[in-house]
Amino acid sequence: MIALIDKCTYILGTLLVICVGLSLGGQGCPNLPRDCYCDKTFVNCSRMGISKLPAGIPRNTTTLIINMNSFSEIPNNMFSAFPELQQLDISSNQITSGGLYPGSFAGLPKLSNLDLGYNYLDQVPKGLPKTLTYLYLLQTLNSTTLAEDAFKGLKQLQHLDISFNKLESLPRNLLKDQSNLQLFRADWNPIPTPGLPDGIFLHLTKLGDLSMRGCKLSKMIPMLPKTLQNLDVAFNQLTYVPVDCLAGMHQLQTLAFWNNSVTGIADGAFRDLESLTIFDATSCALTTLTDDTFKGLVNVKTLYIDENKISNISANAFAPLKNLDALWMTINSVAELNMQTLNGTGILPKLSTAYLWANPWKCDCHLRWLREMVDVTPRFTIDAPHLMICHEPPAMKGKTWDTLKPSDFKC
């Protein structure tokens, strides 16, 4: 979810501008066709079935949206009559690589945002304006790899999204010129670990967001830039988090590796992640949490470890999480909890909500403390107690926590 925020923000912003255009009609652009919408320097001619630019687009246009049409080619100098153009959306057309020419984007000295997604390209087009800072190539590249010089010369790029393509590998020097890159996404490409060269991102010293969600990575990405703030490797084939894979990542704020096959996390693997606020390991295969599994996560506020196979939790497993506010541990195999795990002296001073349902709880005297904690700690609640069902002992089997008092937990 986190890895999609930037693209969603862009889409929502575009939709907002479209809505403004719709409400204002053709105000200020009397020569445009009626199906186009215009507001000063913004022009939207999407969903018109056109294959050529309509007449009447103002020369001072800064944003032009012609997506969801029937363009199959972009002739040389097609946009050169609009030198003020900054944002161009030609996504969801029928443009092929054969329909792009060296001068397709000539005469655009101010173009910063280009969306070419959902077309039919074999490779990244040549001759893209060197002024680009945002480039979207979602579900448009019909190739299993990219030319090493695909982004050569695009030194101002800050956001690059090549998600939902068929890429199986990335060349080692693909991002050689992108020293200003702040966000890179290659989600849902079938890239296995051998297809991602070690150190491909290391030189990107401004990179804050990296998302490789839904690829086929079997190992954590090594040699990451220390500037990363958000890392998304969810929906891969990871099986283990080694001890040094995130060493030195002091600026990392969110880490998503949910929906993997992670069975183990090396003790101390997160020791340098003191800036992390959200940790998501939902739907993995974790079975054990040790005293050092979460070592270093002193500022995590929300911990997601739902839908694992956790059955063994050491007494001090959550002790490093001094700022934890919400614990999500539903759908696991937890039957017992040591009192110190959640209720030790000062162990989790900020914990307000625990989500613990769908575990096979053994509701005897050893778990009475947890039920008492709800009564004596005003700031603390157990979410959905009607879904917390006792499995043992036999006299308690099938009873839900919303019907039980502390005195019901007996040995």
Features:
disordered N terminus, glycoprotein, 16-stranded mixed β-sheet, Leucine-rich repeat, LRR (right-handed beta-alpha superhelix), 411 residues, Cys-rich_flank_reg_C, Leu-rich_rpt_typical-subtyp, mainly beta
Note down, in words, how this protein is organized.
With 411 residues, the protein is mainly beta. Helices cover 8% and strands 15% of the residues. It has 3 helices and 22 strands. It has a 16-stranded mixed β-sheet, with helices on one face. A hairpin with a 2-residue loop joins strand 1 (37-39) and strand 2. The two termini are 44 Å apart. 41% of the residues are buried. One of its GO terms (cellular component) is plasma membrane. Keywords: Glycoprotein, Leucine-rich repeat, Repeat, Signal.
* Rg over CA atoms: 27 Å
The percentage of residues in β strands lies in: 5-15%
- Level of helix content? under 10%
* Helix and strand composition category: mainly beta
CATH homologous superfamily grouping of the domain at 238-411: Ribonuclease Inhibitor
Number of strands: 22
- Roughly what is the average pLDDT, rounded to an integer? 92
Task: Please give the largest β-sheet.
Answer: 16 strands, mixed
Overall outline: elongated
Top-tier CATH class of the domain at 238-411:
Alpha Beta
Distance between the termini: 44 Å
Count of helix runs: 3
Low-confidence stretches: 1-7, 9-26
Q: Which CATH architecture of the domain at 238-411 is right?
A: Alpha-Beta Horseshoe
State the strand order across the main sheet: 1-2-3-4-5-6-7-8-9-10-12-14-16-18-19-21
Which fold does the CATH topology of the domain at 238-411 refer to? Leucine-rich repeat, LRR (right-handed beta-alpha superhelix)
Order of helices and strands: HEEEEEEEEEEEEEEEEEEHEEHEE
